[in-house]
């Protein structure tokens, strides 16, 4: 039977009501983080980890960082720390070597999920977090089942930090993220972030202009 990750998250929130557990959220960008922060900041003590070595070029990485910082400062009325490891795109390229020609949404993307979630649980364990999760599942282009599978596997592998199940696109989460992006005039990128997704976008754009 297909799992309802949204319902599982609601159950965790209900059980921990009033305790505000420490939660580390891997953030991929400001638009995806908007609804997630609006929702979870009511129930958790949050730190954002902006770890995305897949993003290219570096200027794109830095612009997305600036938009995330602006969103947090303008939207959230409580202190939320943002951790930003130094940009190193080799950490991405080394892991996906040999997968360059795999279409978007396939095994290369799953490896990219794991790179970022592994960094998140390592940071979470080192800094005493109770839960970790990612904003990625809010996107209709991301595989929520695979994200939860990887998160749960890493939680079992490392121990000490629990995976917070989620499918943030559910219950109009994706729709709300678009509304918040418009409200705060956020930059909404038109490719996931890596050179391969950018090339695929450019190919589709060229096709529509023929």
Descriptive notes:
- With 210 residues, this protein is α/β, with parallel strands linked by helices.
- It has a single domain (5-208), classed as Rossmann fold.
- It is 50% helix and 9% strand.
- It is built from 8 helices and 5 strands, in the order αβαβαβααβαβαα.
- The chain has helices spanning 5-15, 30-40, 58-75, 90-95, 107-126, 144-158, 173-183, 195-208; strands at residues 22-26, 45-49, 81-83, 131-134, 162-163.
- Strands 3-2-1-4-5 form a 5-stranded parallel β-sheet.
- Helix 2 (30-40) links the parallel strand 1 (22-26) and strand 2.
- Helix 5 crosses helix 6 (144-158).
- The chain is globular.
Compute the number of structural domains: 1
Radius of gyration: 17 Å
Q: Report, as a whole number of angstroms, the end-to-end distance.
A: 44 Å
Q: Which strand order do you get reading across the main beta sheet?
A: 3-2-1-4-5
Q: Could you tell me the number of beta strands?
A: 5
CATH class: Alpha Beta
Number of helices: 8
Percentage of residues in DSSP E strands: 5-15%
| Helical residue percent band | 40-55%
Which stretches of 5+ consecutive residues score pLDDT under 50?
none
Reported CATH architecture? 3-Layer(aba) Sandwich
- The assigned structural class equals alpha/beta
Largest sheet: 5 strands, parallel
Helix-strand pattern: HEHEHEHHEHEHH
CATH topology value: Rossmann fold
């Amino acid at each position: 039977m297909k799992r309802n990750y949204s319902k599982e998250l609601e159950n965790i929130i209900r059980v921990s009501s009033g305790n505000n557990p420490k939660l580390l959220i891997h953030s991929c960008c400001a638009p995806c983080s908007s609804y997630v922060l609006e929702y979870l900041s009511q129930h958790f003590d949050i730190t954002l980890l902006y770890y995305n070595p897949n993003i290219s070029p570096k200027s794109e990485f830095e612009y997305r960082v600036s938009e995330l910082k602006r969103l947090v400062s303008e939207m959230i009325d409580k202190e939320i720390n943002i951790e930003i490891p130094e940009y190193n795109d080799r950490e991405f390229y080394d892991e996906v070597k040999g997968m360059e020609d795999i279409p978007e949404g396939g095994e290369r993307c799953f490896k990219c999920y794991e790179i970022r979630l592994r960094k998140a649980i390592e940071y979470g364990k080192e800094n005493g977090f109770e839960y970790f999760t990612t904003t990625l599942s809010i996107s209709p282009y991301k595989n929520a089942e695979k994200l939860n599978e990887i998160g749960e596997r890493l939680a079992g592998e490392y121990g000490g930090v629990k995976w917070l199940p989620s499918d943030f696109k559910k219950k109009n989460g994706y729709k709300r993220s678009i509304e918040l992006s418009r409200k705060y005039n956020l930059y909404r990128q038109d490719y996931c972030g890596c050179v391969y997704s950018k090339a695929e976008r450019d190919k589709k754009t060229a096709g529509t202009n023929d």
